[in-house]
Amino acid sequence: MVQPQWVRVREWERLYQEYQYASNDMTRLRPAPRDVVERYSRVSAELAQAWRAVLAGEHKPPWWVVAAVESAAQAFTDQAQRWAAVAAGQVGELGDSSPPVRPRLEAVSEPNASRLGLRAGNRERAR
Q: Which residues pair with 125 in a beta bridge?
């Protein structure tokens, strides 16, 4: 059963506040201790899920709302994966608070791909 919209929004608000605290700790503590990095990664993943849960209502929002929410959710998912890898010692260093940002062009839909001069589902520019 899908939770009522107000419950999902409240959960998003709670997680976003927790994310802000974790983000402040990442900025304030140099180098960030492993537990702070792990918390930041966990809360980023939970916030990505909360973004997606906001869309799980009975009513279908306009396409642009879906695009904005999915974009935000994907950004938090990427961030969570990056910091989980840092915490696990797989990439980067603890305390490195500037992970590389990479566009996810493979997620561009056909109408938007044409407008941006890209091929949908591909990272190459349309010729």
A: 118
Q: How many CB atoms lie within 10 A of CB 93?
A: 9
**Both tokens assigned to 25:** 């700790």
- What is the pTM assigned to this prediction? 0.66
Q: What's the half-sphere exposure (Cβ side, CA atoms, 13 Å) at 70? A: 12
DSSP secondary-structure letter at 125? B
Q: Report CA 43 to chain centroid distance, whole Å.
A: 10
**Backbone φ and ψ of 119, nearest 5°:** -95, 130
CA–CA gap between residue 81 and residue 49 (Å, rounded) = 13
Give yes or no for residue 74 having a pLDDT over 90: yes
| Tokens at 81, concatenated | 């994966």
